[in-house]
Amino acid sequence: MSYRRLLDRWLGVMLSLIGVVATLWLGFTGQLALYIHPRYFAFTVIMAVIAAVLALAAFALVPQAMVPQDPHGPGHDHASGSGHDDAGKRRRRRLGAAGSTLIVAAAVAGLLVLPPATLSTATVNQRDLNGAASTLSRDEAIELVGADYTTFTMKDWVSLLRQGAGQEFLAGKTATVTGFVTPDKSDPENVFFTARFVLTCCAVDARPIGLPVYSPGWQDRFETDSWVTVSGGFETNPSQISGETLVMVPDSITAVPEPDSPYVY
User: Fold this and answer.
1) 250 C-beta neighbours (distance < 10 Å), count
2) What is the pLDDT of residue 183?
3) Quick one: how far is CA 226 from the chain centroid?
4) 199 exposed, middle or buried (CB, 10 Å; 0-12, 13-18, 19+)?
5) Residue 1: pLDDT above 70?
6) Phi, psi angles (nearest 5°) of residue 71
7) Strand, coil or helix: what is 7?
8) What is the DSSP letter of 68?
9) Alpha-carbon dihedral 166, 167, 172, 176, rounded to 10 degrees
10) 134 pLDDT exceeds 60?
11) Average of pLDDT values for 231-245?
12) What number of other Cβ atoms are within 10 A of residue 92's Cβ?
């Protein structure tokens, strides 16, 4: 069987197996959380195992009769220019084989070679930071009022700010949150967000949330997408051009490694 016919027959199965291997590897190394919500781990791994069994069965069980036969016989050489296979057809076959090879190579590189990575500022720029759907409901936010704020998460603080918690409520309260650094688009020189992604199902529907931090010259100390823990209170934003009304004015900003579980749920 020629290389082109091999690709024609097994391209889909090979791509499926590459996806299965990548999924199982992420599952067994604990990195599946970079792409899907933990409640779907077991389902995803079970489906990957079933897909692997079906793909291997396809190799073993597809009857030879279903394999396209060469009408000119098994020894016929199509690449030799026998006279009835014109140059255009040969060129298209070569391009088709090259395209299939590139697809397989891209799948191997993207799924098995390149290291998995968390969502970052590049994704924040494509989505709505602190969009309504990424925070708690109004009733859930109201329940936070009067609760022990020292246990609040970033999602809690963001929800309170979005629900209109003002300086009177925030006075004297200190938040400590951990997230990655992403610039405030309206005043990137003085304000950054410490941000995380909220995962409902998978990375495709992940929505960024974040707390604005007033820290002029932060770029000299922290790189975009680096992880920090910020501790501080909330005050009216000193920036004259930022679109954020209230910001964290940090007592401390500490560089930290990316956590094992970088998303919130």
Assistant:
1) 19
2) 96
3) 16
4) buried
5) no
6) -65, -15
7) helix
8) P
9) 60
10) no
11) 92
12) 10
pLDDT digits 0-9 by tens, 44-81: 999 999 998 888 887 777 655 455 555 555 555 555 55
* 112, 115, 116, 118: CA torsion to nearest 10: -160
How many Å is the maximal CA-CA distance in the chain?
A: 88
- In one-letter notation, the amino acid at residue 170 is L
Closest of 260, 263, 166, 150 to residue 209, by C-alpha: 263
Which of 69-73, 106-110, 168-172, 192-196 is the least confident region? 69-73
Output b/e per residue, 164-179; b: 16+ Cβ within 10 A: ebeeeebeeeebebbb
Convert 18-48 into a string of H (helix), E (strand) and C (coil).
HHHHHHHHHHHCCCHHHCECHHHHHHHHHHH
Nearest to 111 by CA among 198, 201, 31: 31
**Residue 232's beta-bridge partner residues?**
175, 250
Most confident stretch, 112-126, 162-176, 228-242: 228-242
- Amino acid in position 40: Y
pTM, 2 dp: 0.74
Contact between 262 and 117 under an 8 Å Cβ cutoff? The reply is: no
Report the DSSP beta bridge partners of residue 254. Answer: 229
Chain position carrying tokens 């009835």: 84
- pLDDT of 140 above 90: no
